[in-house]
Request: fold
Amino acid sequence: MAELVTGEAVALDIRVARLASRGCAVLLDLLFQFVIMNVLIVGVSMATAAADDAWTTGLSLAAVVAVIVGYPCAFETLSRGRTLGKLAAGLRVVADDGGPIRFRQALVRALAGFIEFWTLYSAPALIASLCSKRGKRLGDLFAGTIVIQERVPSSVFGPVAVMPPQLAGWARTLELSMLSDELAMTARQYLSRFWELRPDVRDSLGQRIADQVAAAVSPPPPGRVRPEILLSAILAERRRREEWRLAQRRAARLRRLGQTDPAAAPAPVPAMAMAGGPPVAPVPQGPPMPPPFSAPGPGQPRFLPPSNYGAGPYQHVLPQGPQGPPQGPPPGQYPAPPRYP
Reply:
């Protein structure tokens, strides 16, 4: 996983294509190019049987250049970053800002690929990919592009932050303009790795992150709230507003084209729409359900919930070891959640 910053300064989690998958895509593309080149050369030789040698040589050279340079350039431009090999391997070429690849970038990649793959037998591409953190070859460095893994399991980008029902009304009144993308990314990474941390580490780290996030938003949360519940509510509301803004842009673009948007999203409640401030009495907070993490895919590590969690918020759904639950946090640190039948 790597972080990609879009042109609107929004950090995204992307899955950079690995060297093995890129190698398979290159081999498939070379195979397709060899087949297309042989077909074109045979066709040119048959079409110029009555012509002189200079005419035949010129057409053969044009066919070779069209296959070596024109094949990747045309496919990546028309299919938005995918050749036949990348389509089979589930890869896509995008710009460094996450946008679709342009013709200029595809042409630079194709010209550099002629030197990398056809002249020096992929040695520069292999060395540059091993030395780059994002696996970029020389063509990617010159064109400002990156190859990403497009076909990934749905569990990789599953929902990390969900809206707790007891904080839904408060979250709709939040002012999130002071919440930076870096701090939001830190909170998201904490929630995504919640089950990998020990109980004492996850409580202390979560409290520090929750204090920083709570200082950047307003109004304050109603009552004492667990760190992961607070972060989940804020990030879920932030994602909802971003989805609404994207839906508004899509609707405006469709209106300019004379079309209508069949799925219009409702407008979010303004941050300061509630005149009376936050609720006076905090809503009773029950024990939350575990985050909706899916099972890992084949070949991925499996992080199981701890067998002895203690007195945390998920103690009613986690299995306890034979030695019984250890001592939880100090009394009074967090309110003990009520148990439900």
Summary: The two ends are 40 Å apart (CA to CA). Residues 227-256 form the longest helix (30 residues). Confidence is low (pLDDT under 50) at residues 5-11, 267-288, 290-294, 321-338.
